[in-house]
Amino acid sequence: MAVLLIPSSYRCDCGHEVHFFENTVREMQKMTSKRSKPATIDDGSDHGVEFYRGNAVAVICPKKGRCLITEKE
Predict the structure, then answer these.
(1) Among candidates 57, 1, 62, 2, which has minimal Cα distance to 25?
(2) Low-confidence ranges of the chain (pLDDT < 50)
């Protein structure tokens, strides 16, 4: 399961860490809080983070696919 490291960093099941500015994450949370569709941001690599209804719900990995964020480190 993918892990939330700090409010703007995530670790995929494959070990890759995705880092964003906190403002970017806050903007995605605000943007998706009232939407019924998920939105994804990426860090320039093949990995991305999916937000749905104001929460980060999954890390999108090119090797493992969609990995749900279930833990907080």
Answers:
(1) 57
(2) none
